[in-house]
Design goal:
Among the domains are: 1-46, no CATH class; 88-235 and 320-413, no CATH class. 27% of the residues lie in helices and 8% in strands. The protein contains 19 helices and 14 strands. The protein has helices at residues 18-23, 39-43, 60-63, 75-78, 83-95, 239-243, 247-257, 314-321, 337-344, 347-356, 373-384, 392-396, 413-424, 437-449, 470-478, 528-532, 546-552, 562-569, 573-585; strands at residues 64-65, 111-112, 142-147, 165-166, 180-185, 206-211, 227-232, 268-269, 274-275, 428-429, 459-460, 494-495, 503-504, 517-518.
């Protein structure tokens, strides 16, 4: 059983004195002056109703903070001398703006998605619903998903995370002023569920239609036969704990669910009853010393489950491709050949470089070449085409963003390591109001309706013998240490993320690309309105409240969540409110 004394008491309930902290573990509350505390303060960390003591700590002893915060370091960080300093430095790479030349966050461009990470993770949480696409609008967590509807493949003319910003005189791959987001109302549920509960309370659902005209693409060729969707960022706290789950345990969950629901055939071999090779991140990332065996790590991150380890997961990938900042394992640009070709053929671009790129101190000097129109065009195409490992040697021969390449990347291995200490070290906020009778009723109903089949309440982490990326290994080797011992670890923790780590389909109007989406963890989301100013949910923020998110699960009878939503629909208002209150408490 977890007692309050086992964690530093960063309380979101109220700041307690050291004397009160000691008293919290005493049975005689009144004798120790606790009679003045609120009922929740007295109940915190103790079994109450249908909640165990451990459920106050969704991230376990090593991964929970008692601060009302998405940005606090986990005890796994603060318990180790010196690691908190690296955590704070790494935090700066997330929170502060990247620039063209200024250390330590230099290298932005030549095209990019955002100039900071926190812009799309407000207060480290879920992105906010937007009515227009503006990349640097704080809270805009949207990424544009532009794909061919016949095969769901991303278009090749722009990057997978499409860029709407570029360094002058280059023109952004997509002119964001031409992007349209129109929010539409659902007039009726495809499943037949009424838009009014049986007691008369109404609810409303909205969804986005996003269009980008071909004229918005500054590429050659321009894309054809494409559709656009939005995907918003989710909270990044607690991802280190999900990384610590054993592949075998996740596979067992998929196997169990395959008995009663269809699973993504791109990931799961139904006949063999196991994962397909495509479910593993990459055979090229073998680490035979890992618990993950003789294959790459099992995919578990992003809506589409494209990433298999936090060390090369969504955040590790984004610190490179969102800002286009290079590092030792990715010393090449995040660009496309179609954009490079278009810029090399743009007379305005060539003329501007001709007029402003002659000086060796100019950011444009790498593109100046011999100063002729033909030479500049060829050099622009050559540098902007350096978008793969195959082009690395070519890219290294050029000046970039005003500084000669001398073996040092724009983000050093140490800086990347510090970023990963921060990323893996973010704690999950403690649960709230578990002693509330309505919250306890909500938990009971959540299970009875079948919500917990997908939003599995708890897991236990393994030994957390983590896979480690090349850049972190390189830094560890440079200081004579073992990389796996230098990052926050969460071995043998019982955690409460409320996700089954499985992809499901909800068959919503204007659904997510492919229709398959990993069950989003619910832990800590109840603090969203307090911390970010919004409670928007689901992959494109179409749900403005918890209730709307629930009802979207029942839009279609084909939805994996329909039966549970139907049961929710028939609840009395008091019980519906209890379910919502429970979800906001965990």
């Amino acid at each position: 059983m977890i007692h309050v004394s086992k964690l530093t008491r960063f309380t979101c309930i109220g700041m307690l004195s050291a004397t009160m902290l000691t008293a919290c573990s005493d049975n005689d509350d009144n004798a120790n002056g606790l009679g003045s505390l609120t009922p929740e303060e007295q109940a915190f960390g103790k079994a109450t109703g249908n909640f165990t003591a451990e459920e106050w700590y969704p991230g376990g002893e090593l991964g929970t903070t008692e601060k009302a915060s998405y940005s606090a370091p986990a005890p796994a960080v603060t318990n180790i001398a010196g690691m908190e300093e690296d955590f704070i430095v790494g935090e700066g790479f997330f929170e502060k703006l990247y620039t063209f030349e200024q250390e330590p966050r230099k290298g932005l461009g030549p095209a990019w998605v955002r100039n900071s990470c926190i812009a799309c993770h407000p207060s480290y949480g879920h992105g906010k619903r937007q009515t227009e696409y503006r990349a640097n609008q704080i809270g805009n967590g949207y990424l544009l998903v532009i794909y061919h509807p016949d095969n769901n493949a991303y278009i090749s003319e722009v990057t997978g995370m499409p860029q709407t910003q570029a360094m002058s005189p280059f023109k952004a791959p997509i002119d964001e002023s031409q992007i349209s987001i129109e929010w539409k109302n659902v007039t009726e549920m495809e499943s037949g569920l009424p838009m009014k509960f049986e007691d008369g309370e109404e609810y409303a659902l909205i969804y986005p239609e996003v269009t980008i005209p071909q004229s918005a693409f500054n590429t050659n060729p321009k894309p054809t036969n494409y559709e656009v969707r939005l995907e918003s960022t989710i909270g990044i706290y607690g991802t280190g704990l999900l990384d610590a789950l054993n592949d075998e345990d996740i596979e067992a969950q998929w196997s169990a669910e395959s008995n009663y629901v269809e699973l993504n055939p791109a990931m799961w071999d139904k006949e063999a009853g196991t994962f397909k090779p495509s479910a593993y991140y990459s055979a090229g990332y073998n680490d035979t010393g890992s618990h993950r065996g003789n294959h790459g790590p099992l995919k578990r991150f992003t809506y589409a489950m494209t990433r298999g380890t936090l060390q090369d997961g969504a955040g590790a990938n984004a610190i490179w491709n969102i800002t286009n900042v290079t590092r030792s394992d990715r010393h090449f640009l995040y660009t496309t050949l179609a954009w490079a070709k278009a810029q090399s053929e743009d007379t305005e671009v060539i003329q501007y470089i001709k007029e402003h790129g002659a000086s060796p101190f100019s950011l444009l000097h790498p593109y100046y070449a011999d100063g002729t129109d033909e030479g500049i065009a060829a050099r622009v195409n050559e540098i902007l085409s350096c978008s793969s490992i195959a082009k690395k040697e070519t890219f290294d021969n050029y000046l970039f963003n005003g500084a000669p390449y001398n073996g040092q990347d724009e983000m050093s291995d140490k800086q990347y390591y510090q970023f990963m200490v921060w990323h893996r070290g973010l704690a999950v906020p403690a649960a709230r109001n578990l002693n509330d009778a309505q919250v306890q009723r909500g938990k009971e109903l959540f299970s009875q309706m079948g919500c917990a089949q997908c939003h599995r309440p708890s897991w236990k982490t393994g030994s957390d013998n983590m896979w480690v990326d090349a850049a972190t290994k390189a830094y560890a080797q440079s200081i004579g240490k073992n990389a796996a011992d230098m990052l926050p670890k969460y071995p043998n923790q019982t955690i409460w993320p409320y996700t089954d780590m499985v992809q499901h389909r909800l068959f919503m109007k204007n659904d997510i690309r492919t229709g398959w989406c990993r069950t989003t963890p619910l832990w800590g989301r109840g603090l969203s309105r307090q911390l970010t100013g919004a409670d928007d949910r689901l992959h494109d923020c179409r749900a403005r409240t918890v209730l709307e998110a629930i009802m979207w699960h029942g839009y279609s009878k084909l939805s994996d969540g329909y039966k549970a939503t139907e049961k929710f629909f028939h609840l009395k208002k008091k019980d519906r409110d209890a379910v919502v209150k429970f979800i906001e408490a965990i």
